[in-house]
Amino acid sequence: MGSDLVGREDELALLGGLIARLPTTSSVVIVTGEAGIGKTALLRSALDDATAAGLRVLRGACAPMSGAVAYGGLDPALSSVRIAAREAYASASEGRARAVESMLTKLGELADDGVVLVVEDVQWADTSTLDFLAHLSRNLPESGLLVLLSWRDEDTDAEHSRWLGEQLRNPMIIDLPLRRLTLEETLRQLSGHPAEIGAAVYGRSAGNPYLSAELARGGARLPASLRQVLGARLDAVRPPARTVVGVAATFGRTLTDDELLVAAAGDEDAVTQAYEAGLMVRDPEHGSTARHPVLAEIAYERLLAADRRLLHTRMAEHLAASLSGHPSAGAVAEVAAQYGGSGNADQALGWAVRAAKAAEQGYSIAEAGHWYAVAASLGDPGLDARPQVPAKLELLDAAASHLGAVGQVDRAIALLDFDLSASPDAAEPGAADLVARAALTRSWLGTVLGDTQRALRDVELAERLTSSADQVTWARIHARRAMALGTCSRWEEAVVSATTALDLGTSCADLRTVSTAHFLLGVAAALAGHTPEAFEHHEVALATARQAAEPEHLAMAGIGLTDLHWRLGEADQAARVARVIRAEVRRLMLGRHWLEDIIDTNVVLALYESGRWDEALTWLADPSVSSKLGLLQAALAQVHLARGEIAAAEAMQAQAASLAERDQPLFLGMYGQVQASLLLQTGHADEALELVLSIAETVSGTPDEVDEADLLLVGLAAAGAVAAPAAVERLVSLLGDATGGRIAAAMTSVVDGERSRARGLPRAEPWLIAAAEWATLGRPYDEARARLRAAEALLEQRTGSDARRMAAEELGAARQLAKNLGAAPLLEDIDHLARLARVDLGPRPDRRRAGRPAHRPGDPASDTTAWPPPLTEREQQVLGLLADGLTNREIGNALFMSPKTASVHVTHLMEKFGVHSRVQVAAMAARLGLDRQPPPS
Prior knowledge:
There is one protein chain. The chain is globular, with a radius of gyration of 37 Å. Helix 36 (725-734) packs antiparallel against helix 37. The protein is mostly helical. The protein contains 45 helices and seven strands. Mean pLDDT is 87; it is low at 844-866 and 932-937. Helix content is 62%, strand content 4%. Residues 864-929 form the HTH luxR-type domain. Residues 841-870 are annotated as: Disordered.
């Protein structure tokens, strides 16, 4: 083992074991650590072992300036298996999916003989490379493939950080962080140097292996910083040699000798010096690269601005001249990236557009969006470039459309965040269509982000600018309008627009518009209670989305179908549909679409209502993370809250806070219902009631009111808890539509029950009806809560032993339901009432006690047939409370009786015990062991 692998014995053994097990398994390893920690050395050793074992090795890498080169991290390894870029598919998403499937298929074939795929410095990878690697990690062949990735720990953008977090949550991925070496290990690494040198080096390197080696070469006299050490190495060579090293930072691949010579402006001695100084490393088979990525970064950073521009110009011209007749998107993007640093604005603009179009043809959607955005940022082209370059607004619209399609919605809408009608391009002849298209793009983005008022204004702008003869655009105008109207609960208007969109979309064969229209009409039908019609629309929406191969439309159809199954209480069917559509969406997205959150919310709610709480919480047990929408987090918070997991519920609800900021009532109600439940459960019933009333004011009168049954339930519970009958009536007035549909009988009974409870005259009958209805609907949690309320009312009615017996039965049934569910707070409420009312919910205990006083002649207790005296059930309960020192009023409150009735019971107890005071009764009860004996049920 070389000195650069000291302290890596465990890591080498792990990788060696994975290589040995390749005939039976496949694995993914992410090696993480700081610069200089030894990631490359570790991987190189593993690859040597793989080569020695006869395995095929595929190598790729990423670089700081290659993040917009589609598949830049993979092209060196997989270029021979990439799909033909010009093949036509139904959608860009379908083309990308087929490209990835092609690569996966080829890797699977190679895996038959064993293959190792290495991609280094993934922290700089382009989106296509990230998507492919994530998809690959979830779809590994059963055996024969080892994927080795390296990741330098450093600050990076949100997209890359999120990607790494997702991968490390995947149980199929092995996280292999590299630590710094100990002093002993550093001394072993530097065994060729005196011990005092090794100790001094360690004191300055803190165990970073690469820095230790560099410091030892300089006798520990160099500054104790990796960048400073490497800078000193660069200072020892001529500027042209430094340029040779610096060019490596601009590519995510190895470089040919010709490319290095171009970088050095033809200076062969500079290239030779870079090699001889150990700054560049040549691999005869794969090409050359810098000895360390940080070395290349520093060399590039130290170039003067003018020298950088010259370097980029030389490289761009060389790469452009070397392009084949049908270059890959990555090859064109390399030219665009080099011209981007050249200072030649016209060339940079022209090549950015070419890179965007090449990415489109290669189905690299994110990179296409990036390059269109770059082109739009480069300003007006010169006269020579103008015929080849689209208008700036067209570039911005294309960029926003592509970025929005891959989920980068915030970035997409930022590109169009200006007055579209005042754009300089809007004044050009024939620009109206362009402005209208951009307005429709922004309209959808606004709807996604919850700004539906802006979305509607953009639709109106598109309407003003679109010719009446342009049926395709008008179809999309009506679809966008319907979507915006629907999300802000104006469904009556939405149906009109959706119907028109459907007619126009059908006439011009616009599959995306047709699918959207059917989805919206299906949602409207569901809200109106027309279930068969809703199913029909959503099934057609799904079939059309499959034809169009659009993940967004597939997801919308999935939302509609799972929503219907949730409404019908069909949790299994909702889960089945979600699984099928999720697989189709992820095939096209290569990851999670944000609309999946709503699909999953429907499933979680269906599982929650049916009492399958463990399944609800584990429904998302996969490596993907939910979006920033917050709806799914609110649904999960509801489950945690019912289980009494307050901290988890609060954490989830905090992530759902954005729902309250949207101008979409359908999301506001969900957030408010959970927030009010949290307040109610933590002892803030008055605040809960106030919150529900305020949200009910917003939701009331909209078609979405019918979906606010849970909001109404928590509001009624809060009103009952604070004895606010007027609030009950106000809630019913505001949310009356929520009491209809298949839950109508249950909801009506709950309203009657809470109405009587709020007035201080609780009635058991409505709660008993509600419990039976909830049981029929298969909603055990609601049933258990109704049974608890019924028991409270029965005990409050004080109508004798029959009512008490019924109360005990209801409490027992409620307790069993709560126990089965794991509903800890509800279980506590049930047990508290049982203790308070002296209702025994357990087995009847044996009244004989081993510690009872002995029989004594002359003592009343000597008559074993009469002593202890026979006590009624109620007298036993009064006796226990009396022994606790409670007054007659306190006993009455505890047992739901008047103080006068409690006094009568106490008098009877004194008579039966033959004593003259309460204290004597308590003492006698204690002596006989009757004071703590649980009463029979």
